[in-house]
Structure formats: structure tokens, C-alpha cells
TrEMBL record:
Keywords: Membrane, Transmembrane, Transmembrane helix. It comes from the Bacteria. It comes from Dokdonia sinensis. This is LSU ribosomal protein L21p. The chain crosses the membrane at residues 6-26.
Length: 190
């Protein structure tokens, strides 16, 4: 090995190490001396404010009268543990109305109508006995995530937060409302 060019590689190495150390020290001086107790108090205040907002929303929701249209679509409600489960009574499927709203032929209980669900995800749901829009509408978001997780890593990226709501609109034949919602939002894939 030729040591005559040692300066060509040692000086840049030393300069890099010195710059790294100085960058670390400057970073610690500029932002590393944060008051963690002050941060904790700030987050506690923000959390308390958000909790108060949530409580106010929940009290307004409980005080709001139930719409007549929602009572017609719900067959019954019952409590399972801490969660209220609502049974959806689907209306008869109107293929013409669905096709008019979506501009394509829609098959009854085709889960791929829900934004974010493709054929492979629909197959996963079928394997878990969730085969209709009404079944999906009655499924919790947590259960939907469990179904996705059962398919492996490639399905874990999907976010099913809106899938039961979209499925409920489909089960109730609210095609225009579903299509409008899907056009305005891109939450089915997030």
C-alpha cells in the first residue's frame, strides 16, 4: 500500500469527525436542553382540553334526537360488553340505482364497492364470514384491522376506519350519498 497519499484520505476523515462532533454539540445546545417537565405539563393541558371537547361532543350527541330515517334502517341495538352493536336491515338491492350512481354494473354485496377494498381484501373478509355489506357495516374497525392483519404484512398498510360506514350506505341503498362521499374523501385507502 502506498502511504505517500495518506494526507489525501486522513485529513477529510479528521475534518468529518470534527464536524460531526461540533454538529452534535451545537444541536444539544440549541434544542437539546428542553424542559421535559414543561413539555409534560403542556401535553397534559392539551389533553385536558381535548378531553373537555370530547365530553362536550358526547353530551351533544346524547341530547340530539334520533332521526326517523336512522330508526327505519336499524333493526335493533344491544350491548356486547362495552360496545353497542347495531344491526343493519338492508333494503332490497337496486342494481339500476347503483349503476346510475357509479356508472358501472354493481353486484349485490360486492365488498369492492367500498373504497379501499380490492378483490384480495374482499377474499380475506369472506374467509372471516363477512360476506355482505350489512355484515361489514356491523363489523367494528378493530375487527376489520384484525382481518387485514391475518393476511400478512402487505395488508397491514390499509386503514379500514371508514369501511363499515361505507358498507352501511351500500346496504341501505344510499348510492348517491356513498359515491359523493367517496369523491370527496380518500380515506378508504389511508
Amino acid at each position: 500500500m502506498d502511504f505517500s497519499n495518506i494526507a489525501c484520505w486522513i485529513w477529510p476523515l479528521i475534518a468529518g469527525i470534527i464536524c460531526g462532533i461540533l454538529g452534535y454539540l451545537l444541536g444539544r445546545l440549541a434544542g437539546g436542553s428542553s424542559n421535559s417537565e414543561g413539555d409534560i405539563e403542556l401535553w397534559k393541558r392539551k389533553n385536558a382540553s381535548l378531553q373537555a371537547d370530547l365530553d362536550a361532543c358526547n353530551s351533544k350527541l346524547k341530547a340530539a334526537p334520533v332521526a326517523a330515517s336512522s330508526s327505519a334502517s336499524m333493526a335493533s341495538s344491544f350491548t356486547a360488553g362495552n360496545k353497542t352493536v347495531t344491526r343493519i336491515v338492508p333494503i332490497s338491492f337496486d342494481a339500476a340505482a347503483a349503476a346510475a350512481a357509479f356508472g358501472k354494473k354493481i353486484k349485490q354485496d360486492d365488498l369492492t364497492v367500498v373504497e379501499g377494498i380490492g378483490p384480495k381484501i374482499a377474499e380475506l373478509f369472506h374467509n372471516h364470514d363477512i360476506k355482505t355489506w350489512a355484515n361489514l357495516a356491523e363489523t367494528s374497525v378493530e375487527k376489520c384491522q384484525e382481518v387485514l392483519n391475518s393476511g400478512g404484512k402487505r395488508f397491514e398498510i390499509h386503514r379500514p376506519a371508514t369501511w363499515p360506514m361505507q358498507a352501511e350506505l351500500a346496504a341501505l341503498g344510499k348510492w348517491d350519498q356513498l359515491k359523493r362521499w367517496q369523491d370527496e374523501h380518500d380515506y378508504g385507502k389511508e
